[in-house]
Design a protein that fits this description.
Elements (H helix, E strand, L loop, with lengths): L1 H12 L7 H90 L1
Length: about 110
Amino acid sequence: MRDFVRGDVANLRRPARLPTSTDTVLELSTVAAVSNINSSIEHLAGPSLTEIANLISELGSMREMLHAEGQRVQREITGYGHLSQAAMKSTRMIADNLSEWKRAADDLRNG
């Protein structure tokens, strides 16, 4: 690691030299090679990137659908809760009325 850092620092300390025509040719060939490599990478990665973009879009759609479905289920559960409470009240009222009728019938028999 130290050698790597020292090498970088040594390169920075070297006096700058004027570019030559050989340097220009090397730079142009390097730029062309990098451009060729970038083009190849884009060509190879293009379908994968398109597929990833499609998957992201599909996942977003699924997320929206699941969110809407979760809200619907929550509304259904709330509705069933209200229905259950109403059924318990009705059952209590029926049980209370039957108790009163039974007491009234017992009073008539005993009375």
